[in-house]
## 1
Amino acid sequence: MSEVLVLNAGGTEVLQRVSLKHAIGMLYRQVARVREQVPGETFGPYPLPKSIELVKYIYTRWVWEATGRMPCTRENVLRRDCHRCAYCGRSATTVDHVLPRSRGGKNSWTNCVAACYTCNQRKANRTPTEAGMPLKITPRQPNSIAELWPRRM
Ligand SMILES: [Zn+2]
């Protein structure tokens, strides 16, 4: 039996390889979904997977349990900030790096905030001080997975 790649939520990183049987079990338990399928082939009710992708909650829990740290993903930053823009308080759909990445800013909990598209564009490649856009919140690392993902899916 062929092996199936398991990718993180978002599909940017390979985490491990599992047997097809194991992969189908993960699809059945709804902890993963098919990312890439073998064209035209099926396995019971499922498209035959070449790779599967963990659902976001499971991915977050997986990293949390493996490293003791919450992964600083776009989804998790938006959840921490309740989908509110850190600059204007309106509904946020993007993540802004307080110190821009192009200037050495890290993809870390203390350097990432939720931002609306307009503020993100306006701030561009500047610090909040340079842009005259003070932060309304102090970004911090969440203490537990339950803070961001209070309910099981
Ligand atoms: Zn905004």
Note: The chain has six helices and six strands.
## 2
Amino acid sequence: MHVVRPKDPVVGRVVASQPCLNGRSASFVRHVAIDVSGTDLAGSFRVGQAFGVIPPGEDHRGKPHSVRLYSLACPSHGEDGEGNVLSTTVKRVIDEYTPQEHDEEQDAHHLFVGVCSNYLCDLKIGDEVLVSGPAGKRFLLPADPSRHDYLFISTGTGIAPYYGMIRELLQGPEGTCSSRIELVAGAPYTTDLIYDDVFQELAAAHDNFTYHPVVSRSDIRREYVDRYIERNLDDSFRDFLEDPRTLIYMCGLEGMESGLYRVLARHGLSDGYMDVREPLTLEGHESWETADMKRNVKAGPRCLVEVY
Ligand SMILES: Cc1cc2nc3c(=O)[nH]c(=O)nc-3n(C[C@H](O)[C@H](O)[C@H](O)COP(=O)(O)OP(=O)(O)OC[C@H]3O[C@@H](n4cnc5c(N)ncnc54)[C@H](O)[C@@H]3O)c2cc1C
């Protein structure tokens, strides 16, 4: 971790920038690849980690903008197979301004444009960018990936690490890993499913990989990832979750864990995936409040979580 510190970043060069949504969406998400060859970052990252981007300019206090973290979307050997090109999946933060403090003008509603996500998405091929990292030491693939099976769950850009991990498992330098891989990818609408075509193709080509796109705001079926897993428990997920080989990974919006922990508790599947601390008890799961869960229900050794 932290081979390159944000205070002393290295210069990378953008080598690819492509939209990664199909069809018309209200969101803008790009796959951005950055060449870091010749820097200390080259070859020093692992899929599941994040890297830092330092946007130019100053914040509203006149201080240089702080580093923002982005999950690696490439395998550990990079997009180029040599560990020289890292990538991420970046969503432009664009919204109507909502006052954040009491002393702000409360009816302010101008356009709010996130600093770093838009900077990164605006960069063109050949542009330089200051990068740091890598960051993160737990949300990683195991040392011997073939000894486990994987339930990968994402919301939004939380798909980024799985884009790297699944390519590493299925197409890595070691050949195809035969582990069972289930990807449950949540998005508001089908047009917001990120890398959808690539995952469809990988699922068609590999019997051990199943792709489950789940949309939460469709008119046809509205569902969140946890509810989808619960609905399909007896058809596909129960045996899988009971198998001691299985690891659960969750990545995306803060708050996504509580829904899954509730499902696991409700169906007697919590073993190894979650630790329930006092004053909460597993038996009392029906009355858990989400705020209490944040403090007292933690990921167990078979559950890896990266939320932001
Ligand atoms: C470990 C980790 C991995 C991450 N991976 C990814 C990734 O793979 N892809 C990705 O896109 N992002 C990722 N992020 C998030 C990323 O770091 C940035 O937070 C995100 O891109 C927004 O940064 P920004 O500079 O564009 O927005 P900022 O300029 O920092 O604005 C966002 C901040 O402004 C405030 N805000 C938000 N909306 C409004 C509003 N409507 N009105 C007023 N204030 C508002 C909030 O406080 C918010 O924190 C990750 C974060 C972490 C911690």
Note: The helical segments are 115-122, 160-171, 196-205, 225-231, 233-242, 256-266, 290-296.
## 3
Amino acid sequence: MSNCQNCGAVLPVNSSVCEYCDTRNFVDFKSSTASSTLGPSQRKCALCSTLMETINVGSESKQLPIEKCNHCHSLFFDNGEVELMLEMHSGDPTSINRQRLHELCELAMESGERKAYIPCPVCAQLMNRQLFGVKSSVVVDICHDHGLFFEPGEIRHLIEWKRAGGQILDKNTKASAPKERPRKTSSSHEFEDYDEGGFSGGRNGGFLGMALEMFFDILD
Ligand SMILES: [Zn+2]
Ligand SMILES: [Zn+2]
Ligand SMILES: [Zn+2]
């Protein structure tokens, strides 16, 4: 649970916008981390075109610079940086908390989905949309050459996902069930668009259909 940085009211669980004063809060990292600005960036936010800023989301001794939009609070990670960030912020869970993963999925379902494709902050090519991991319920915008773009709240969600063992489940799932054909379920329609973008060759390429299927099947 977090509070509005402007008026102190408790924020809704699945939104960074205060219901009382309409302030858009930065919820992905604690303010002590978020305040460590490193300088302006030449990269443009994929959502609102504002020039982004480089911030440090690592520690003082081990910096992890990423881009943040100060207008809409979206984040951009170069390839490989999300994994580093998750290691630093989620610790190293050894078990899977299915109840917690289930709760996280339910929360994400309520917050709705954006359909449009948006441009990579580095090369301006339209990015693909891809489920980050089994039961993560975070559909990330990805440029295979440059990195991953996250809307406000999605990184917070991924940190919780990994803490609950989501990444272990993701690895187990991908290792144990390689080539089943995805079966469309009634509840998967909102993700159908993401099948079209040519995901082969990506880090998680080829697993998308299965990942989506597992995502819904494991809920029970
Ligand atoms: Zn407020
Ligand atoms: Zn923005
Ligand atoms: Zn790119």
Note: Residues 124 and 176 are 36 Å apart (CA to CA).
## 4
Amino acid sequence: MDLSNAETRHVKKDGAEYLEFTAFDKYMDKITAVFAIKGENDLRYFTEDGKENLENLCRVISVDPNKLIKITKQAHGDNVAVVKDLSEVAEADGLVTNKKGITLSTRVADCISVLIYDPVQNAIADVHSGWRGTLKRIAPKAVLKMQQEYGTNPADVVCVLCPSIGLDHFEVDDDVKDLFVEEFGERYMYGLNGKTYIDAARHLTESLVEIGVKLQNVHDAGLCTVCNKELLHSYRGIGSKEPCYHNAALICLK
Ligand SMILES: [Zn+2]
């Protein structure tokens, strides 16, 4: 099976399986950015028994596994941590840096990881945006943090929304629906057979555009984790059972 489409390239190499994004192709000499998936071998990354997989992935994509920032607790909040060295990041949902050689990572199983690159100031961000994070505008807050720290102009950044739960599967109850309507109106809310579905990627895109990111610079991988649960870790895809493992969104300045 192959998940390649206009926005993504499915790579299988030396035991690692991951997606690359065509939006970043022209910056290949500046950044490494991948979304590691479970693939046909059910690869795990952020578990004790997945340690080797993560290290192997790092080797394959030529980043230093000892310089990988893993957030201890992704908390569905809006805290964006500025990474200056290899210090532990205890609790955050967004990471930004302009340090070369440090790999930022987020882990997701239906939520949206957003990888962001500013080619002018040469700075990066990696964001975990679930529905709570999307409501709290964590992704635009990461861009604004880049602006504050590195002088980033939002109009310059290129954003990739990694695979996440799609509109076709993101059914929500009234309480979640009401929160989205309050924040964004009903624009990307769809009703079918008495159920409500939300296009979270579109909400997230809109919140980035609101702060000056160019619409044509926001790229959606266009892959639903639930539809592709054979190859992508998906919480809802496995029936919301524990434990659920995670895909890994990695980005590093060369
Ligand atoms: Zn789907």
Note: The chain has a mean pLDDT of 95.
